[in-house]
User: Fold HD domain-containing protein from Tabrizicola oligotrophica.
Amino acid sequence: MSDQLEAQFTFLNEADRLKSVLRATTLVDGSRPENSGEHSWHLALYAMVLADQAAPGVSIDRVIRMLLLHDLVEIDVGDVPIHSANGQAHGSTDVQMAEARAADRIFGLLPPDQAQGFRALWDEFEAAETPDAVFAKSLDRVQPVMANLMSGGGTWKTYNVTAEQLETRVGVKVAKGAPALWAWVRDKTRAYFA
Assistant:
């Protein structure tokens, strides 16, 4: 039991570092960048509140667990904004490989049974093929949109984001897992980009 608790607290203490990873997205009041710990918490709340937008059969419990774990790799890799540069760096092979190495290291701090389960949830989120992961990915894409809308454009101004880029880089993913939610959000973004 002592070894298990030692490993679990080693992981939890490492996870605390996520609070120091600043994201490109600001708080909705625009006062400062959010950190990745705040982002993960907010997404878990999004899942609870917007559970009615999920497809039938989606397990909100699993979605929340994915969202709490999904950005832990940023402890090693940092935040890679979806609209940075030409948008390619976000999903690039180099970033994916760095994130996989980070997942190995960070989840590897846990006892083996937990490490395997947590890593499996992270891999599922990254693949975005199961209904749970598709919905989780949708929420991960829509939360920064709402923050940008509430802050008067936020990082869209920084990265010169167009309505077309928002649709192709974000809208497609959100619509896949939460079509009614994207329809509502798209109406809000159209007013901004008009």
